[in-house]
Design a protein that fits this description.
The structure is a homodimer. With about 230 residues, chain A is of the alpha+beta class. Chain A has 7 helices and 12 strands. In chain A, strands 1-2-9-4-7 form a 5-stranded antiparallel β-sheet. In chain A, strands 3-8-5-6 form a 4-stranded antiparallel β-sheet. In chain A, a hairpin with a 2-residue loop joins strand 11 and strand 12. In chain A, helix 4 crosses helix 6 and helix 5 packs across helix 6. The longest helix of chain A has 24 residues. At the A-B interface, helix 2 and helix 3 of A face helix 2 and helix 3 of B. Chain A binds a DNA duplex (30 and 30 nucleotides) through helix 6.
DNA sequence: CGACCATTTGATATGGATCAAGCGATGTGG
DNA sequence: CCACATCGCTTGATCCATATCAAATGGTCG
């Protein structure tokens, strides 16, 4: 069953509140603005499951506040994070009938939920909506491709890339407040927490970043980070 | 300019030849069958460039015969392969205006070429075509996600997965004739040629495969390979 | 037959994993 | 309000899988 175990409160009434999203990043906003018109809000507490791998993919989700991770657990117990999702971003849209990953709230989060069938039906009548669905998947593909390229690089490059990606997506140029743990970062980048931690202190030593608190990263020299990325 | 440097012969006349593709793997066939109706054929010699990274993505391609690799070269000279494409499979469809990867013929190949604008225009009138474009990208996403998961596993697991993937896509259950070099495989899996070679001999020792010729792999014990994958 | 290129095999080096403490912040019960 | 338990993070020591460097072998084509 969908999310009955872990959700903590529901407000099934739509309550529009449109036009809040910046005109920038038009692509993502496109699908997601449409969703505002049709969705129901739900709240999830920290670490609550939003959906599980192989569950029917009947809904599409948008983060209103908080943060979300998708992930897979391997036989050997290791976990790989599929992606992080932040306010304004959508997740959980599948072409097939089942979710490919599980999804959890990283923090207490408010999530907008829309029936996938509603979007797909709309796409049959409206070429613009059809293009939005395609765009969403294409963007997801780009992100995963970029990360695939990353997974063959050094730990330092991976962590530098991660910080820049987060800074970009959390729209914070100077400093980032990371909502996720070191373990989450490690499982995202295919490293161990020890290596992530060591690499961060290493970047601090190089004066590329500062770490006043473990989850508050000041980007002291973004250019140096960028060069590591390439 | 598009492919004028390296193509060796052109046959711009469509020449339909439909309904050759098996009814299986309907998803891929869908977009690709449509393409048969509209495309022009071109021939590429071994290692010829089909398109380059950042070139305008005005065309979509389908392999008629031969094999194709897409790839990126990093600053440090290393190469990562984005994907391999075999007869009946399409590649090069982008949402944005530029190709994200370069594409080369692995072998002498015949490629069907279709204007992207034709497909996109068709999608505006035909929801079915719109869904095909989306499906194509969604399938590509699934493949890359699977490979992303792979890149954090051991060399043995990666090579085992590779062999099974190739066996599946080249529709050969018993044995595979690999069109690509060890270097191609290495750059696909994020390994070195030495590690790929060693891992193959290791699998041979374990009696999981046989290697009568370096590019002809007999899958002696697919279950053992599968267990490695997971 | 000889040259060249792809592949295998061998010896060594190394980046990141693993194993193991220590430390600092946060929260809880007395 | 403080002592202590817990959890997340950092740091240290060692190990190991894969990279790197180097050479031998095999296969292909002129």
């Amino acid at each position: 069953m969908l999310m009955q175990t872990s959700m903590s409160a529901v407000a099934p009434r739509p309550a529009p509140e449109r036009s809040r999203t910046a005109p920038a990043r038009a692509g993502i906003a496109a699908l997601v603005d449409q969703m505002d018109l049709m969705g129901a809000r739900m709240s999830f507490t920290r670490n609550a499951e939003i959906y599980g791998e192989n569950e029917p993919a009947d809904y599409v989700y948008k983060v209103v506040s908080g943060a979300v991770r998708t992930y897979k657990i391997f036989d050997d117990g290791r976990r790989q994070i599929g992606g992080f999702y932040f306010p304004g971003e959508a997740f959980g849209l599948e072409l097939g009938d089942e979710h490919e990953f599980s999804a959890e709230a990283i923090d207490n989060s408010v999530i907008l939920v829309v029936k996938r069938s509603a979007l797909v039906a709309l796409a049959d009548r409206d070429p613009d909506m059809a293009r939005k669905l395609w765009s969403f998947t294409a963007r997801e593909l780009q992100r995963v491709q970029k990360r695939m390229l990353l997974l063959v690089k050094s730990a330092e490059e991976r962590v530098a890339y991660f910080l820049l990606e987060m800074a970009g997506r959390l729209q914070s140029a100077e400093a980032v407040d990371l909502p996720m743990s070191r373990q989450d970062i490690a499982d995202y980048l295919g490293l161990t927490i020890e290596t992530v931690s060591r690499t961060l202190t290493q970047l601090e030593t190089k004066a590329a970043i500062a770490l006043p608190k473990s989850r508050h990263v000041v980007l002291r020299n973004p250019k140096a980070l960028n060069k590591l990325d390439s």
